[in-house]
Amino acid sequence: MTLKACTVVVHDLNETAHSIDVTAETLYEAIAQALATLRVYAWVGDIALGDLMVEAKLTETGFQTTSARMIERYRDLEEVFDSGELMRSGEAVQCYQLVRGVLAAHATGGSFCVFCDARRPDLIENWYSVMRAVRSCVLRCRLRLLTWQEMTASLPGPLQKFLAAKYGIAS
Fold first, then answer.
1. What is the mean pLDDT of residues 94-105?
2. pTM, two decimal places
């Protein structure tokens, strides 16, 4: 695969565009490099919670699937994962969003947390199947699962009521 020069543009909460030029083989690598570089600036707090990246599932049916060919192009895949342990369906790798998040945490030295509904044991099992494939116990210690029900207990009352009424989520 060849390196390509590109510009990554990130918008903060004030809609200010911040850009950085990077050279990478894949979109994933370009974004990881940009976030790692931009992290030193104070405004990054407007788009991330420190070094924490999050994948949140509330109403979606599951985590995306992609071709094994696509995943195998990612830098550090073999270093981070025992790829034989990743969930596959034919030539496709399941839980692509989770694999991508773990790789981003590895590349940036950050943490990755999945938010999902405790009433969805399939999503929870998918998360743990991806975690089992992670080679490094140090990286596994930076990976988390938090259910919406656990999080709801610490939210303000009006937001708790909204989640209960709209999604049936209560602490």
1. 90
2. 0.71
